[in-house]
Write a structure and sequence with these properties.
Helix content is 34%, strand content 34%. With 171 residues, it is of the alpha+beta class. Strands 1, 2, 3, 4, 5, 6 and 7 form a 7-stranded mixed sheet that branches. The protein is globular.
């Protein structure tokens, strides 16, 4: 995704987010800041649990964290899965492979999109055991989350990796 497109999306998302505080007084601002900090912490805990479930190949937990709403999507390195059943079929591909890979996360940035939605952006490193040894692929993950009935669920997921060229360069 180009930086211009991402910048346009972020600007659009910010315009959708309702103001957290209308008052000019410090108590209202402090209360809004506390609510935002609490939401961020809640979302970060959810994301860490999702990645932990992925590292354990716990597809049941991962799918419980995924919305069953129509339109839910998952994009991984150009492959698009639409709908809960399609995402579950993709997730089932990791069953039995726990320990052969690990997803590590960097800083989890959370942008609240109102009280019931959030955008998550985080750098990731996928470490994979291969016959030639361990390979690390840096990448990124974005999630759009929705909170319904007190529970966060993923409505959109996107992961991408920087593939490293394994062919020797010609001089």
């Amino acid at each position: 995704m180009s930086r211009n497109l991402l910048a346009a999306f972020v600007a659009f998302a910010i315009t959708l987010a309702p103001p957290l505080s209308f008052g000019a007084g410090a108590p209202a601002a402090k209360s809004g800041e506390a609510a935002t900090a609490a939401l961020r912490a809640e979302v970060q805990t959810f994301v860490k649990a999702y990645v932990a479930a992925g590292n354990l190949a716990d597809t049941n937990s991962m799918m419980e964290m995924t919305s069953r709403k129509e339109g839910v999507t998952s994009v991984a390195n150009g492959d698009i899965s639409r709908g809960w059943e399609a995402i579950r079929a993709e997730a089932d591909a990791i069953v039995g492979k726990e320990g052969s890979y690990k997803i590590s996360m960097g800083t989890i940035d959370v942008m609240p999109l109102g009280a019931t939605h959030a955008l998550v952006v985080a750098p990731i490193t996928l470490t994979v055991a291969t016959a030639s040894g361990t390979v690390q692929l840096p990448g990124a993950m974005t999630l759009v989350l929705e909170k319904s009935a007190g529970t966060w669920r993923i409505v959109h997921e996107h992961t991408s990796s920087e593939f490293q060229d394994t062919e020797p360069e010609e001089d």
